[in-house]
Q: What sequence folds into this?
């Protein structure tokens, strides 16, 4: 239910924002253009699963504008949703009812880059791929990469504490983000845009914004430490006959490739088959395998790295850890191999919808869950090849290097019966292994009811106290998370 404490948007409010932001393109006013098509993309999420009814979208161009917007909203009890690239997968970036959308796309400037320290300072609305391309020219790399890089914003990445494809190598944003500039709900600008690697002067408050999912303030700028770009990158894709062998391959990769290993991704055969069906593209290996892995190495010496990777591949082939494999020969092949992994989320949506679970689990138990869920849905007669079955298949893939499983259930239609079989079963299963019900996507609205499976009452109470301290009127991204 909409909370009646929030004010409803009026013409007077809209006029205030029009005056504040000026230009036409900075504001989409659904009050004057009812059911305006322009506002729709801001109201529905990437999966087309969650849809709100905002009548106003604001696109501030500066931190000062964000501050004035939030102060006005706080004084007038107008609820807001911060929005970046709107690629989040838990419904956190769209309104639930009529919250005002504050989209950061116009705050897209690089503020500074220090080529010696590698510290980048940039506006929150910079698209991740744009930041990475800027850094490429300076021979550096953004320490985060993910399939949505062409649309997601670095502020959104920080707000979700996105993990992505190379966390194994570069670590989490909790370590890489050195400073944050954010605006609190009452309009206060929190300038904690430190460029220091070390700064033990009291509580590290910026950490609350990393993964805060827009519930305590709007991130307007970040400073982040970016590593030197590796001159030699290699990618290999291989097929394996069991999950046991995947684990062996991972151990060998860590042991033999050690400092040059930059990604170790897992894809089950079923996910690859669906990618093939959705795209009609030829898969890298001729034969089908129950499991596939993608390994990336990044180092500074091409010959040394190639030799290491070659030795590793020979070893895992000779010891029958892997059944078959291919090594990318050029940049086009690197992209092709990566697309088999990065393309999975988009391809799985091909049949209609997807139930998504983003889980941290002990690595040895990770794939058992996929098998258990598949058995459960199959026994209930839900899985099949034709329209009479809601479920297309049950697949698992993810960031093996971080023990992060993406359990996905692509469906032809969302179905209450399927949902009842999935939940709370999946969450109870994860809890029984001391896992996390949200490894990297956050809670948003989709996972909000299930936080108790991963966090104790005491932890939830402390989070609520923090929320109340920063946002006493509760205007920031309500109905989500906390
Ligand atoms: P949005 O979706 O717009 O917002 C996400 C949340 O952050 C919302 O709660 C919103 O209110 C809040 N928010 C956004 N901007 C701000 C801001 N400036 N200040 C405060 N709050 C803000 N995630 C991973 O972790 N790893 C992956 O590998 C990965 N791969 C993906 C692949 C695809 C194809 C897609 C579609 C998504 C993927 N994601 C992945 C999901 C991931 O969370 C997002 O892609 C990304 O981090 C969100 O950034 P965004 O700018 O789109 O934020
Ligand atoms: C990925 O790793 C993303 O590809 C998306 O985190 C996972 O869609 C998903 O479930
Ligand atoms: Zn992921």
A:
């Amino acid at each position: 239910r909409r909370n009646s404490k929030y004010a409803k948007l009026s013409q007077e409010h809209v006029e205030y924002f029009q005056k504040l932001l000026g230009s036409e393109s900075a504001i989409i006013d659904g009050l004057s253009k009812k059911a305006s098509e322009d506002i729709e993309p801001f109201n529905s999420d990437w999966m087309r699963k969650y849809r709100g009814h905002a009548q106003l979208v604001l696109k501030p161009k500066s931190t000062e504008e964000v501050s004035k917007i939030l102060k006005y909203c706080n004084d007038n009890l107008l609820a807001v949703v911060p929005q970046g690239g709107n690629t989040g997968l838990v419904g956190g970036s769209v309104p639930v009812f009529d919250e005002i959308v504050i989209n950061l796309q116009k705050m897209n400037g690089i503020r500074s880059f220090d080529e010696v320290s590698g510290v980048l300072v940039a506006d929150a609305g910079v698209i991740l791929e744009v930041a990475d391309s800027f850094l490429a020219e300076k021979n550096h790399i953004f320490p985060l990469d993910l399939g949505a890089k062409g649309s997601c914003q670095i502020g959104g990445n920080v707000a979700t504490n996105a993990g992505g494809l190379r966390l194994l190598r570069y670590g989490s944003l909790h370590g890489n983000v050195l400073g944050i500039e954010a605006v609190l709900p009452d309009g206060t600008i929190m300038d904690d845009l430190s460029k220091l690697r070390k700064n033990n002067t009291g509580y590290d408050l910026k950490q609350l914004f990393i993964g805060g999912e827009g519930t305590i303030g709007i991130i307007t700028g970040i400073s982040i430490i970016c590593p030197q770009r590796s001159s030699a990158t290699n990618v290999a894709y291989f097929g394996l006959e069991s999950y046991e062998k995947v684990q062996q391959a991972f151990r060998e990769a860590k042991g033999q490739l050690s400092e040059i290993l930059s990604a170790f991704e897992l894809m089950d055969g079923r996910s690859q088959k669906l990618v093939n069906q959705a795209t009609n593209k030829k898969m890298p290996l001729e034969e089908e395998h129950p499991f596939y892995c993608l390994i990336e190495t990044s180092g500074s010496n091409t010959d040394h790295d190639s030799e290491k990777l070659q030795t590793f591949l020979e070893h895992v082939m000779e010891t029958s850890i892997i059944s078959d494999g291919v090594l990318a020969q050029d940049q086009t092949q690197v992209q092709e191999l990566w697309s088999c992994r990065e393309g999975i989320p988009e391809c799985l949506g091909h049949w209609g919808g997807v139930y998504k679970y983003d889980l941290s689990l002990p690595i040895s138990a990770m794939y058992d869950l996929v098998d258990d869920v598949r058995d459960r849905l199959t026994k209930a007669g839900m899985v099949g090849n034709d329209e009479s079955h809601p479920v297309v298949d049950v697949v698992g893939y993810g960031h093996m290097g971080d023990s992060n499983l993406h359990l996905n259930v692509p469906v032809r239609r969302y179905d209450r019966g399927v949902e009842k079989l999935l939940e709370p079963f999946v969450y109870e299963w994860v809890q029984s292994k001391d896992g996390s019900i949200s490894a990297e996507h956050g809670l948003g609205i989709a996972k909000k009811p299930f936080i108790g499976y991963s966090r104790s009452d005491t932890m939830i109470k402390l989070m609520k106290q923090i929320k109340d301290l920063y946002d006493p009127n509760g205007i920031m991204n309500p109905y989500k998370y906390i």
Q: What stands out?
A: The two ends are 16 Å apart (CA to CA).
